[in-house]
Specification:
With 374 residues, the protein is of the alpha/beta class. The protein has 16 helices and 13 strands. The longest helix has 19 residues, at 69-87. The structure holds uridine-diphosphate-N-acetylglucosamine and uridine-5'-diphosphate (UDP). It comes from Patiriisocius marinistellae.
Amino acid sequence: MKKKNLIIFGTRPEAIKMAPLVKAFKEDTTFETYVCVTAQHREMLDQVLEFYEITPDFDLDLMKPNQNLYSLTADIITHLKPVLEEVKPDYVYVHGDTTTSTASGIAAFYSGAKVCHVEAGLRTHNRQYPFPEEFNRQLTGKIADYHFAPTTLSKDNLLRENVSEKNILVTGNTVIDALLFGIEKVNTTTFEDSEIKMLNETLDFSKKIVLVTGHRRENHGEGLLNICTALKEISAKNPDIQIVYPVHLNPNVKGPVHDLLGDEKNIILIAPLAYPAFIWLMEKSHSIITDSGGIQEEAPSLGKPVLVTRTTTERPEAVAEGTVILVGTNKDKIVEYTNQLLSNEQQYNAMSKLHNPYGDGKAAQKIVDYIKAL
Ligand code: UD1
Ligand code: UDP
């Protein structure tokens, strides 16, 4: 009898980071592998499914406009019951720290399947930051039978929580598998009529590009206002740069960002980019300002300095390496560090080291081999 896998994800970053695992398991015919998407995100999830050519076996289609954590959590658990009863998986794979991963972990545990946590063990040790992600990740760590930790630091976090060492594997982060595959595909494909063509026509690449993203719940409101005010100030002081901001579709982000920055001349607000266009633009950028988890992991592979608009991170490795600086949502600090990167070549060069502490791009295969050997 073949071992049966069910891989569950729902948001853009989970889809990007689970795509290499889907591919690796589907290529191994000793497994029967099914994919279920909760569609906690819709458009932003579909962009990734299209790029990685993944057709889910089950699509719960749960996203609602401006959804809340209570009903989303309940909906995921309830709607997964029939899927789990139909597939009867031996192993269920969940990723990271989203509502989809934790709610799916709970449902999978109820079904009796073994729960495999991909990107396990990252910690800020503060349940309010990031909210609710730190709590989600800790909870999924309690539910999981097997823990795939990206780094030895994340493994150590799990050991300190008394997870048995034999149930932890350090794999690197699958985001690097996804990135390497993505770069290869971008470099070998002609994207007619694509976002890349649109960016090529709209942006002036003789100017430095500062790429911005942001969506964290704890930054909604005041934090986001500070970030936008900082961007206005940076733009005013540096008329020769372009600030490019693909705006997250969360109405608590999209509304204020367009209200505050919609009329600025050298701030270009665009819709979320599909993954190939985004990594293409990252490569072309001078530096990045973001509160995203995934971008903190990708940017060091591309040698791009990152200013992180958070006061704490569960990804301290790149901070220690010196490619990432935590600037929080303090307006003056964001302005000061961005201006330094724009004007101080020595500091810029020191931060744009091409080194990545998050893996070698073979994380997905390591997970497949581990499960095979059980
Ligand atoms: C979610 C995750 C967060 C992750 C982020 C990645 C939780 C609690 N939050 O936050 O950990 O870092 O995704 O982006 O799991 N929307 C759309 N279309 C989309 C996606 C979102 O319209 O394709 C809008 C909808 O109105 C939706 C809202 O954004 O209700 C919020 O989506 P949600 O997944 O709840 O929160 P995020 O802020 O995206
Ligand atoms: N990303 C993308 N298009 C965009 C912005 C980001 O494809 O317009 C990718 C980015 O390369 C990274 C992931 O989305 O892999 C990060 O997702 P997000 O910031 O939404 O979530 P987080 O990583 O913070 O959970």
